[in-house]
Structure formats: structure tokens, C-alpha cells
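Notes from the 1:1 (GR / supervisor)

We went over the backlog. Supervisor wanted to see one worked example end to end before approving the batch request, so GR pasted a single chain during the call. The sequence is below; no edits were made to it. Supervisor asked that the structure be written out right there so they could see what the output format looks like.
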Amino acid sequence: MNSDVYRDKIVVLDENGDEKEFSIEALFDMKDKTYALLRSEQDQNHTFVMQVENTEDGQFLTGINDSSERDMVLDAYEIAVDANPAE
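Structure output shown during the call:
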């Protein structure tokens, strides 16, 4: 397996206005919503799931405050990965 996989990267401003870089691990749709799985470039052990919001001004990432929704999204992602493992 090639560990040098190229991923799209994004820069997000945190609550303090500091730039944080993330790799986009996955984008997927579920129940008429789009979600992004992001991995921190500063700490590879931190992965976040966020909702992608589409507006007239572009796309924005928003947090998922509902823990049951977040768990459902993570479970669905895990099932999809298990069903279609990467080479």
C-alpha cells in the first residue's frame, strides 16, 4: 500500500483566528446532507466530521452539535469503508 496518498487540503480559521490545515479524507452524502471527514495536519490522530453547507456565497463547514447525528455519520462512514476497503 502506498502511504504517500495525495489528499486535498483546506485551511480553516479556528475560534482564535489561527489557521489550521486539514486533509480531506472523505466527502459523502447521507440523508440529503453532505459531510466531510477531515484529518488534522498538525496532529494526525485527530479526525473531525463536519457538515458541508452550500450557500450563494460558496461552501462552508459547520460542526455537528447533535451527538446522535455525528455517531450516525461516523457509523455510516465506517460501514462504507469496511464494504469497500482501499487497496
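Supervisor's comment: The first helix runs from residue 67 to 83.
Batch request approved.
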